[in-house]
């Protein structure tokens, strides 16, 4: 929400939360490579403090903290979730709509693989998407066109990374 809120304000658009658009592993206590367990996230009201234009999905509780999406490390689960999220976005939007999706870098790898009709074989994933990077895809027609992956020019100056295009 903290990432999406400034974009929403700048573009004059609402932010639609989606239960599948969370990082691999979800919200958890502990270390990625050690013992860990689920931890609750913010309530919708708490998230709206960061992002006033938040639209909360009807299938999630409007009052309870988000459960954090804690899940297994099984890449099949993440690949299925990526395909489900993309299917939902395609069902909700027409071919000429532009959709901005804010998610985390490891899950983004599963999204890109799903867009390209592939599965990632294991974790850590083999397709790297850098933190703060942007990626662009054109989904009109039967072919997915890659505009760019890992673009960092929004950071400017010494913070900008390499531009990788396809």
Could you characterize what this model shows?
Strands 1-4 form a two-stranded parallel sheet. By secondary structure, the chain is an alpha+beta fold. A hairpin with a 6-residue loop joins strand 5 and strand 6. It has four helices and six strands. The model is unreliable at 162-166 (pLDDT under 50). The chain has two domains: 1-71, no CATH class; 73-166, no CATH class. Pfam families: His_Phos_1. InterPro entries: His_Pase_superF_clade-1 (IPR013078), His_PPase_superfam (IPR029033). This is Phosphoglycerate mutase.
Q: Which structural class should the secondary elements be placed in?
A: alpha+beta
**How far apart are the termini?**
29 Å
* Spans where pLDDT lies below 50 across 5 or more residues: 162-166
Helix amount? 25-40%
Strand content: 5-15%
Q: Roughly what is the average pLDDT, rounded to an integer?
A: 84
Q: Biggest sheet, strands in spatial order?
A: 1-4
- Largest sheet, strands/sense/barrel: 2 strands, parallel
Q: List the secondary-structure elements in sequence, H or E.
A: HEEEHEHHEE
What's the β-strand tally? 6
Radius of gyration: 16 Å
Protein name: Phosphoglycerate mutase
Organism: Deinococcus grandis
């Amino acid at each position: 929400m903290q990432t999406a809120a400034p974009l929403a304000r700048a573009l004059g658009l609402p932010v639609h939360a989606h239960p599948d658009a969370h990082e691999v592993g979800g919200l958890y206590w502990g270390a990625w490579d050690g013992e860990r367990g689920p931890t609750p996230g913010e309530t919708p009201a708490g998230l709206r403090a960061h992002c006033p234009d938040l639209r909360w999905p009807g299938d999630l509780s409007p009052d309870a903290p988000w459960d954090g999406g804690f899940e297994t490390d099984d890449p099949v689960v993440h690949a299925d979730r990526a395909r489900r999220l993309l299917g939902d976005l395609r069902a909700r939007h027409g071919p000429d709509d532009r959709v901005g999706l804010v998610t985390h870098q490891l899950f983004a790898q599963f999204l890109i693989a799903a867009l390209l009709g592939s599965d990632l074989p294991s974790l850590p994933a083999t397709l790297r998407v850098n933190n703060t990077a942007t990626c662009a895809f054109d989904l009109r027609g039967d072919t997915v066109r890659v505009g760019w992956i890992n673009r960092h020019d929004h950071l400017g100056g010494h913070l900008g990374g390499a531009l990788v295009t396809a």
